[in-house]
Amino acid sequence: MFRKRTWESLINFHNVKLYPKLPCPYCGSNTLHLDLDSAQFKPLSNAAYKSYLDKVGLFDDIKKELEENVFFGLLSSIEKISEQKNYSGAQFTAFFSCELCSESVSSVGMAQLSIDGIVEKNNIKVEFFNPPIPMFKLESSTPVTINEELLKAFNYFHSDISSSGSKLRRAMEKLCNESGCTERNLNRNIQEFAKLYPQEGRWLKSLKLVGNEATHSDGVSEQDILDSFEIFEVVLDIFRRKQIEDKINKTVLLLESRYQ
User: Fold this and answer.
1) Is residue 139 part of a domain?
2) How far apart are CA 185 and CA 208, in angstroms?
3) Using CA atoms, how far apart are residues 87 and 117, in angstroms rounded to an integer?
4) By CB count within 10 A, which of 88, 107, 227, 258 is most buried?
């Protein structure tokens, strides 16, 4: 099941000691933990660090909070700006290790190093995992073409949200094709898909709006993509149901023959 709250907590910098366990891309268990001993940091100049904070939208968040509520926005802004003074910026590399299968995943990203030198106060924001970490379980019943696009969407999520949304749109295209819908564009394919799966088709129409925004503009947010992943995981259940449908039908007939 999609652990949306976990991924929401990783949109911004996260304390290294409180970093959550993630899904292992090898065995699928939720036991992939940050190996802090493997972490290496390379300090950034103040100008480079400020440029990065601009890129990830820290100051945009402050502006938004001020617009929504001047008083509480001001308090939050003062807190965030003061907090930044307690850290210096750095690039980092680190490995994540699985407690179950012992395999490792490499990561790179940005770090906030505590100016008092206490490692436990450091924060990190991973921007790339290798291999990509599945943000929800990719079932074997789902066609490979769809899972491949989803893995790309998952990995882009941490550094390029528009590309993540664009890859999700590609996964929708593959979903329609794998379901036998081969019209000339995604909109018409979804219309055909909805004839086969009305509920899932309605959900795809909403996801298409997010995918279009990500592909043709830059107005999509991390929260939009997380919400879309949550919905898309449920849509993909059509393949699992299809895989077990024959077996279930045979079981139903067997039960009916016993009691009729």
Assistant:
1) no
2) 11
3) 10
4) 107
Q: What is the 3-state secondary structure (H, E, C) of 192-212?
A: HHHHHCHHHHHHHHHHHHHHH
| 40 within some domain | yes
Of 106, 130, 154, the one marking the end of a domain is 130
The answer to whether residue 260 sits within a structural domain is no
Q: Do 40 and 16 sit in the same domain of this protein?
A: yes
- Looking at the fold, whether 69 and 177 belong to one and the same domain comes out as no
Instruction: Quote the tokens at residue 83.
Output: 């907090």
Region class of 57: left (phi > 0), else alpha (psi between -120 and 50), else beta: left
226 is written with which tokens? 């997380």
Residues 6+ apart with CB under 8 A from 17: 36, 120
So what's the pLDDT on residue 245?
87
CA atoms within 13 Å, Cβ hemisphere of 57: 13
String of DSSP letters for 121-152? G-EEEEEEEESPPPSS---TTS-HHHHHHHHH
For the chain, the domain total comes to: 2
Q: Which two tokens stand for residue 71?
A: 């008083």
Other C-beta atoms lying within 10 Å of the C-beta of residue 49: 18
Q: Same structural domain for residues 157 and 114?
A: no
Q: Are 94 and 107 spatial neighbours (Cβ–Cβ below 8 Å)?
A: yes
Location of structure tokens 């593959």: 174
- What is the per-residue DSSP string for 162-197? HHHHHHHHHHHHHHHHHTT---SSHHHHHHHHHHH-
- Which tens digits make up the pLDDT trace of 9-68? 999 999 999 999 999 999 999 999 999 999 999 998 888 877 777 776 654 554 454 455
Record the pTM: 0.85
Amino acid 253 reads L
